[in-house]
Amino acid sequence: MSEKVRVYGDRSSQRKESTRVMVISAILLAVGAITHTVFSGPDFLLACMFVAIAISNNKKEVFAITVAAGLLTGFTQVNPVGTVASLFDKLISGFFFLFIINMFGEKYKNNLIYFAAAVVLSTILSGYIYFASYYFIGKLVGLPPTMKIMQRGILIPVLTLVMPTACANGFIATIINRAYKLTRF
């Protein structure tokens, strides 16, 4: 039996499991998009994306989840450079998170500390990629740094914005993941 499918049985039950995971992922992304739009602080869409990735654990589904999360985040950006940067950071950090949780297996997903650490590391990577790509794409197309915080490079935003967001995302994603595991039907 393939590693991609966690449900034993015929093709019908496999399709039902895949559909269930994608529906839950869509709900998580919708909740994340709403909170991302309402609250300008931490990127809760990223936390919801990581929980959806942990639930699916399938490369095709993870690709769909990361692209959807990148586009949803990009739609809230004022500048088109931010849209492209959001897509880059979600794709790379999503597959990095998938790599981490697959490296340690099921023990990793079920342990709250390991899960929170994976979310924190992936959020730091996501923030760094976002600000680096925003900065370099902006330079490439000749835009001045639109965010005042970016005028001196990317180190200041990474330290002042990404680190607190990483801690918040680790906490929020762990709560969401734990709630999912307790209420799984």
TrEMBL record:
Keywords: Membrane, Transmembrane, Transmembrane helix
Organism superkingdom: Bacteria
InterPro entries (alphabetical): TrpP
Membrane-spanning ranges: 21-39, 87-105, 112-134, 154-176
Name under which the protein is recorded: Tryptophan transporter
Source organism per UniProt: Peptoniphilus ovalis
